[in-house]
């Protein structure tokens, strides 16, 4: 997703403003950036006066590093790995922030009836999308059947300050943690004296509050699954957008594109007819998780779900079509 300032020859989406824009004409622009979660992050903000760029960048990096240290399934020293490697039946104490994200993940798993599944780490790794080296070829049907029996997020035994480890279950929060990190950085910037408006991006997931100094919203261009799709601009103001798709992390096997998004029903890369989904929500963690769920559901179920829950979303389909949910059509 690329921040842009031009509106010509594009589909333009403008959601209703939650709060009237402030006059920021006297504010100064500041940009900070860095790396986290094996990707890049960037923030553009307007403030009442000069900002300590190095200090602000260090504070943002510290938040992201702490989230990575708690939630990465690929770090041997993370709290999530400590849970995943615990023996079955053991009580594993976990930090509050990680517990909150797991609670969010379980809420979306229940809401989507398992289309979003936080228990798929072993499947992700076996298909070659994790940190482990795997043999050539793809997992057999027998291996996938065994996986489906072990990846049961419903077996989690919730305690006040930790979890009881179920037999065989390994959690993967990559479908929600990056969105949560966007929200955490946004919250920090909102609480920073003098900061009036900002656009935050972590690996293509964005959130904005306030408007630019000239009074324009933060215009964001949504990535396209197909170059033939219409370019889409959205005015982000007190809003987040998350996109998932098969254009970056995938491989071709027997002529079939296999992406990193795993369908729990098959323990295999999703084959739903959807190539990409962008979801808009006030909370980036929710947009992040719902984008994955809708991609797994397939067009008909995803549209019905989005309509039922008033979810603004844009889907790019394998047959070249683009589909907007009713809630997103209202922004045209």
CATH fold node name of the domain at 6-21 and 217-329? T-fold
Main pleated-sheet profile: 8 strands, antiparallel
CATH superfamily grouping of the domain at 6-21 and 217-329: ApbE-like domains
Secondary structure tally: strands: 19
Shape: globular
Element-by-element helix/strand order: EEEEHHEHHHEEHEEEEEEEEEEHHEEH
Strand content: 25-35%
Structural class determined from secondary elements: alpha+beta
Helix segment tally: 9
Give me the CATH architecture of the domain at 6-21 and 217-329, please: Roll
Question: Mind telling me the C-alpha Rg?
Answer: 20 Å
> Quaternary status of these chains?
single chain
Q: Strands of the biggest beta sheet: in what spatial order?
A: 3-4-8-9-12-17-18-19
Could you report the average pLDDT, rounded to the nearest whole number? 90
**What level of helicity do the residues show?**
25-40%
Written description of the protein model:
The chain has 332 residues and is of the alpha+beta class. Among the domains are: 129 residues, Roll (T-fold), CATH 3.10.520.10; 91 residues, ApbE-like superfamily (T-fold, Orthogonal Bundle), CATH 1.10.3980.10. The chain is built from nine helices and 19 strands. It has an eight-stranded antiparallel sheet with strand order 3-4-8-9-12-17-18-19. The protein has a four-stranded mixed sheet with strand order 1-10-11-2, with no helix packed on it. A hairpin with a 2-residue loop joins strand 13 and strand 14. The N terminus is likely disordered.
How would you sum up this structure in a few lines?
Its cofactor is Mg(2+); Mn(2+). The protein has 332 residues and is an alpha+beta fold.
